[in-house]
Design brief:
There is one protein chain. This protein is mainly beta. It has a single domain (about 10-270), classed as Jelly Rolls. It is built from two helices and 27 strands. The strands form six sheets. Strands 2-23-20-25-18-15-14 form a seven-stranded antiparallel beta sheet, with no helix packed on it. Strands 3-4-5-12-7-10-13 form a seven-stranded antiparallel beta sheet. Strands 1, 19, 21, 22 and 24 form a five-stranded mixed beta sheet that branches. A hairpin with a 2-residue loop joins strand 16 (about 160) and strand 17. The mean pLDDT is about 95.
């Protein structure tokens, strides 16, 4: 709990459950946790995709104008980029990528694994869309873990629960994974001016004073105060053993165009990105 006298109490603003779509092999199954057509509701986040896939689904491809946060739920994810980067991520690991002006990479299942991931697209403001491309692997054993009675919080990004997460995002965000035993309660503290959402990975949880109940595959946006300068609190109680991911960020409030692998401010910018890619300005393919 915070010590502020007038702390902003968060509630569920909107909620829904994920609908899954069977895909053609090697992309086995896919869902929009955050549907891209609602990106204005999620600013600074654009979309969140949940995927199950085999090797060959996300081979060499480009990006420009945004950041990705890829959370591995299960399996082994092999990252390859055309700057010589290579890594293997496993369950609980996260990769942060600033695509910036020109990323070219591959995200593949290892060997015969069926990989299960969540990939969040995080916008960049116009002033940062031409920044240098960078990658950061965040291994679960390096993520601060803060226990509370009946559970614990892993802090991947931002200042949460008295610790700072290792993610080096170019825009201010938080990312936490909270686990609960049955009956446990927890108060999650976020900056009140952050737009926030959550996704339930397992179990059943009650949120806020309204005691809104959500179960596995439930998604919710939260109320927030964009003009606020203090902290906010979200009350959470577990009706079953549960795990939830909570993300938040400061809205950018710029017009965006999402087209293919690019996120820019205008269609002219999108066309320029395709032109630069086809002219080889993104560099060589991402292969080992």
């Amino acid at each position: 709990m915070t010590n502020q006298k007038n702390v902003f109490n968060r509630e569920i603003k909107d909620h829904w459950y994920v609908n899954y779509t069977e895909r053609e092999f090697p992309h086995v199954q896919q869902a929009w946790v955050l549907p891209p057509e609602r990106k204005k509701d999620f600013d600074p986040f654009i979309l969140l995709a949940e995927d199950w896939f085999k090797r060959g689904t996300f081979s060499d491809h480009p990006h420009r104008g945004f950041q990705t946060i890829t959370y591995v739920i299960d399996g082994r994810l092999e990252h390859i980029d055309n700057a010589g980067g290579h890594s293997i991520l496993e369950a609980g690991d996260v990769q942060y990528m600033n695509a910036g002006w020109a990323a070219r990479h591959a995200e593949e299942a290892v060997d015969d694994d069926l990989i299960h991931t969540l990939q969040l697209w995080l916008n960049l403001p116009k002033a940062l869309k031409n920044t240098k491309t960078t990658y950061q692997d965040i291994y679960v054993e390096d993520v601060p873990l803060v226990p509370f009675e009946g559970g614990a919080v892993k802090v991947y990004s931002g200042d949460i629960a008295g610790v700072k997460g290792p993610m080096k995002s170019l825009v201010p965000i938080t990312m936490s994974e909270v686990t609960f035993s049955e009956g446990a309660s927890y108060t999650h503290v976020l900056p009140e001016n952050h737009n926030a959402f959550l996704y339930i990975l397992s179990g059943e949880l009650e949120f806020g004073g309204s005691k809104t109940i959500l179960q596995k595959t439930g998604v919710a946006t939260l109320t927030f105060n964009e003009e606020g300068t203090g902290d906010s609190e979200l009350l959470i109680k577990a009706n079953k053993r549960s795990k939830v991911l909570i993300y938040s960020g400061v809205p950018i409030n710029e017009e965006t165009v999402v087209y293919g692998p690019f996120v820019m401010n205008t269609m002219e910018d999108i066309n320029q990105a395709y032109k630069d890619y086809h002219e080889g300005k993104f560099g060589a393919p991402a292969v080992k």
